[in-house]
From TrEMBL:
<dbReference type="GO" id="GO:0003677">
    <property type="term" value="F:DNA binding"/>
</dbReference>
<feature type="domain" description="HTH LytTR-type">
    <location>
        <begin position="53"/>
        <end position="154"/>
    </location>
</feature>
<dbReference type="Pfam" id="PF04397">
    <property type="entry name" value="LytTR"/>
</dbReference>
<dbReference type="InterPro" id="IPR007492">
    <property type="entry name" value="LytTR_DNA-bd_dom"/>
</dbReference>
<keyword id="KW-0238">DNA-binding</keyword>
<dbReference type="InterPro" id="IPR046947">
    <property type="entry name" value="LytR-like"/>
</dbReference>
<protein>
    <submittedName>
        <fullName>LytTR family DNA-binding domain-containing protein</fullName>
    </submittedName>
</protein>
Amino acid sequence: MKLLIIEDEKNTIHHIIDYLRTTGATVSIADITADAAPQHCRKRSRIVVKKGADFQMIRMEDIAYFFTENKVVFVVDQNGSKYLADINTLSELDGSLDESIFFRANRKYIINANYITRYSPVDKSKLNIELTVPVQEEIIISQENAPVFKKWISEV
């Protein structure tokens, strides 16, 4: 069932409930709030990637990290396989990820907490992140973001 999109977020649920009452449909409040949530608030459960000429889906829990190179976004999965992401920038992707799992390490990398093996300090409180899958270069978290990362990783 398609729901009407109502701009006034404060009244959205009430309008949906009234509409459903007129149709006789039965839906839980959880269904209503999930369907009514703005697209930018929904978290991705998978991403479309390109491997050769084929497009395929990868579940978010299978992604070790995202990175950008020459203005192209790539996905690296749990096996270390690299895919071209069907997305333009890491910033575009960042807001749709579950922030309890993914962390924006720097301008080039978004990392999955489940694939972090350890981190170590370098140069005045910066952090070097090590993952369970190979990375082409060191993933460095800046001195400014290091405290945010430490708090985030301890709460995951």
